[in-house]
Design goal:
Elements lengths: L4 E7 L3 H12 L4 E4 L14 E3 L2 H5 L8 E5 L1 E5 L5 E5 L5 E4 L1 H14 L3 E3 L2 E9 L2 E9 L2 E12 L7 H5 L10 E10 L8 E5 L9 E6 L4 E8 L6 H10 L2 H4 L2 E11 L8 E2 L2 E3 L15 H21 L4 H4 L1 H24 L4 H10 L2 H8 L4 H9 L5 H5 L3
Parallel strand pairs: 1-2, 1-11, 2-8, 5-13, 11-18
Antiparallel strand pairs: 3-7, 4-7, 5-6, 9-10, 10-11, 12-15, 12-16, 13-14, 14-15, 17-18
Helix pairs in contact: 1-3, 1-7, 7-9
Bound molecules: flavin-adenine dinucleotide.
Length: 394
């Protein structure tokens, strides 16, 4: 059973937490991974899209049981219905079975030596002076304390652990999108190897509707929107109602959740503490994907923690190497993507239409990586009303 002392205690067995736990365990540390849900990964709060390059970050091959559908491109629709197709000509991403994937990641952490505990809810953090020294948790009504040299908050978008520890991770409301999704079956999908994205201020204000196929007749059909007078559900219902190929389908799951789309944190550490994943707003601001970012941050965090524990110094000064590395490897890039989001969300439907006419699939591939922004700026510059926005990108 659970011991009372570990090198590292990780709160939350999502992709971020399981990654920190696995890499720390692989480097020989004693790790406890605590997850409040009774079944890791369920219910899912995700459209389950993952780019193929994310597997490299994991350092593991993703097993077939975790993959519902391989993807080789995307079809992106302007408000007027015109589209651009991005075709990679090979598998470039997956639609996962997130419930299977998250559980597999936690199992891999356990196989590496971490102790994983489901249905174990962290209720507070332990502190000694300025240092975080562990957590208080509950399992089946039993309350106990777990001490650790480093406590990791990987408790997702609604993170409380950082706040309890004394690190203010409050995000601005403008940086939180509302996600609402139906997993549907009995629908028609033209090409299940493509994801379908629909933009427009009437369709999804400051966001988009997605169809992420999980086979020929099954998909996650969802929406992410910014602050709006109407809830995300209103827009998704309208979208589905207007499309016979979707309207005829059944809803087998309803998935909801907030998505942080910006507001990256300069500081993510305290004495004996750090925060990863959604809890640290580490999500790609343009498409809202956070699984890859959680793994990337989890890996960086684990290397810093391992070094700190080995050196017997888990002070914030030592752990702040995580801030430096994350900003260098992920943060600078994500901040550029955030600037792109800030431009795209200000475009009118007419401007979105003309943008889709001026761009190619290859341009979109570049933008999604945060590159090629000068080309986008030069297109926007041609429209007098958009010059100010365009300058934001250069
Ligand atoms: C509608 C929607 C669609 C999305 N689609 C995609 C997509 O297609 N692709 C993509 O990459 N991302 C997508 N995301 C974002 C993605 O789901 C997150 O970015 C990702 O799950 C972040 O991983 P994480 O490990 O940081 O947090 P999470 O996966 O949220 O894991 C946090 C874990 O901490 C646990 N926890 C919380 N509090 C406690 C506590 N007190 N004690 C113990 N455990 C606790 C939670 O139960 C949870 O299991 C989507 C999000 C939403 C809402």
């Amino acid at each position: 059973m659970l011991e009372s002392r570990y090198d590292v205690v990780v709160v939350g067995a999502g992709p971020g937490g399981s990654t920190v736990a696995r890499f720390c365990a692989e480097s020989g540390l004693e790790v406890a991974l605590l997850e409040k849900r009774q079944e890791i990964g369920s219910p899912k709060r995700c459209a389950e899209g993952l780019s193929a390059d994310s597997a490299k970050l994991l350092g593991l091959e993703i097993p077939k049981k975790c993959i519902a559908q391989e993807i080789d491109g995307a079809v992106i629709f302007a408000p007027n219905g015109k589209s651009i197709t991005v075709d990679y000509g090979k598998t470039s991403g997956y639609i996962l079975e997130r419930k299977v994937y998250d559980k597999w990641l936690a199992e891999e952490a356990a196989r590496a030596g971490a102790r994983v505990f489901a249905k174990t809810k962290v209720t507070s953090v332990l502190k000694s002076g300025s240092s975080v020294t562990g957590v208080t948790a509950e399992f089946e009504g039993e309350r106990f304390e777990v001490e650790a040299s480093v406590t990791v908050a990987a408790d997702g978008v609604e993170s409380k652990v950082s706040r309890w520890a004394g690190l203010d991770t409050t995000n601005r409301l403008v940086n939180i999108d509302s996600g609402y999704q139906w997993e549907m079956v009995g629908i028609d999908i033209e090409d299940p190897r493509k994801i379908y994205l629909y933009f427009g201020n009437e369709i999804a204000p400051r966001g988009y509707v997605w169809i992420f196929p999980k086979g020929k007749d099954k998909a996650n059909v969802g929406i992410g929107i910014g602050l709006s007078n109407r809830p995300a559900k209103y827009y998704l219902e309208k979208f589905v109602r207007e499309r016979p190929e979707l309207r005829k389908g059944s809803i087998t799951e309803v998935n909801t959740g907030g998505i942080p789309v910006g507001g990256f944190l300069k500081n993510m550490v305290l004495d004996g503490f750090l925060v990863v994943g959604d809890a640290a707003h580490q999500v790609n601001p343009i498409h809202g994907g956070g699984m890859k970012e959680a793994v990337a941050a989890g890996r960086i965090a684990a290397s810093v923690i391992s070094e700190a524990v080995e050196a017997g110094d888990t002070s914030s000064e030592k752990l702040s190497r995580y801030n430096e590395l994350w900003w260098k490897e992920r943060g600078e890039h994500l901040r550029r993507v955030e600037r792109l989001r800030q431009v795209v969300e200000k475009l009118s439907d007419e401007e979105l239409n003309s943008l889709v006419e001026s761009l190619t699939g290859d341009d979109l591939v570049e933008f999604s990586k945060g590159a090629g922004l000068k080309k986008l700026a030069s297109i926007l510059m041609k429209k007098p009303g958009l010059v100010k926005l365009a300058r934001h990108l250069i």
